[in-house]
Design brief:
Blueprint lengths: L5 E7 L3 H9 L10 E2 L7 E6 L3 E11 L3 E11 L12 E9 L2 E9 L8 H22 L14 H10 L1
Antiparallel strand pairs: 1-7, 2-3, 3-4, 4-5, 5-6, 6-7
Length: about 160
């Protein structure tokens, strides 16, 4: 059985500092609808996309210009049966010098091929990291999910959890 965590990496011609600042600018590469703090240790924030995905994260490790770790506190996908798949997993960004470039290694610890959401999440994270975050760091503009009147509200999550 393969229990390998999902990992991807990018190399950029920018400094550790620039890469770190881009990563903490979550609304610049993941979603413009981020609610809450994303730059200080123990900050909690909420990501949501329409009624498809909601998650609550906490910044649990912070080493400036080197490492960020988010702990998934809560999660909801409208397309899988077991929404606990992400709960308790960690999203890790490791930043290191690699020759003349800066390497950003992204690992979603606990996101493994056995999970129902794995393929969709793998594709989404790959796009967000290799395209959107890369472009935010290198070109100054990522491609986050835009703010929209998406009809999302936490009552949907509560109702789903009570149902399930």
């Amino acid at each position: 059985m393969n229990n390998t965590n999902f990992t991807t990496a990018i190399l950029v011609d920018k400094t550790h500092y620039e890469a770190f600042n881009a990563i903490t600018n979550i609304s610049g590469w993941w979603s413009e609808s981020i609610e809450g703090g994303t730059t200080e240790l123990n900050d909690e924030f909420i990501y949501h996309y329409k009624d498809i995905h909601y998650c609550k994260m906490k910044l649990v490790e912070l080493v400036p210009d080197q490492r960020l770790v988010w702990l998934v506190l809560d999660n909801y996908f409208n397309f899988i049966k077991d929404n606990s798949e992400w709960v308790g997993t960690k999203v890790v960004f490791d930043i290191a010098q690699n020759g003349d470039q800066t390497e950003i290694k992204f690992t979603h610890e606990g996101l493994v091929p056995q999970y129902e959401c794995f393929e969709i999440c793998r594709e989404a994270w790959t796009n967000y990291i290799q395209e959107s975050l890369f472009n935010l760091i290198t070109k100054g503009k990522g491609a986050p999910n835009p703010i929209e009147d998406d009809g999302f509200n936490e009552e949907l999550v509560v109702k789903w959890k009570l149902r399930g």
